[in-house]
Design a protein that fits this description.
Length: 128
């Protein structure tokens, strides 16, 4: 089983992105797996998205909802998706996580004053 397969079967992964000064910032996220890559979703204005615009390197690891690591970290490269890819990723995540996926997506949008949603998908390719 590959690292993508192992991570893709979990409910959460910790995605670590890096600030300009090299400081690591880890965030637990929901995910889906597609064609040997991991897909996640975040707010377009989030720190995670901003950090990825400056540095595409990431570390990922299985974790729980609070971000407690449940396995080894694996290096990878992330890229922000275009609007069409983001829509597909959002649909896949909402399908995988069902009602809760839709509720949390709506709550995040409402909390950020974004009733229509302003997400960006992230494609993660692992270094294997």
């Amino acid at each position: 089983m590959t690292a993508v397969d192992e991570l893709g079967t979990g409910k959460y992964i910790s995605v670590t992105t890096f600030k300009k000064d090299g400081t690591a910032v880890a965030t637990p996220v929901w995910l889906v797996q597609r064609r040997g890559e991991l897909l996640v979703l975040t707010q377009a204005a989030s720190g995670k998205a901003k950090r990825l615009r400056n540095n595409p390197r990431v570390l990922v690891a299985p974790c729980d909802a609070r971000g407690t690591l449940k396995g080894a970290m694996v290096g990878g490269t992330a890229r922000l998706q275009d609007e069409i890819e983001t829509h597909l990723t959002a649909s896949m995540i909402q399908h995988r996580y069902g009602f809760m996926g839709r509720v949390f997506s709506w709550l995040a949008d409402a909390r950020n004053g974004n009733a229509g949603g302003d997400h960006v998908g992230i494609t993660i390719t692992l270094d294997e």
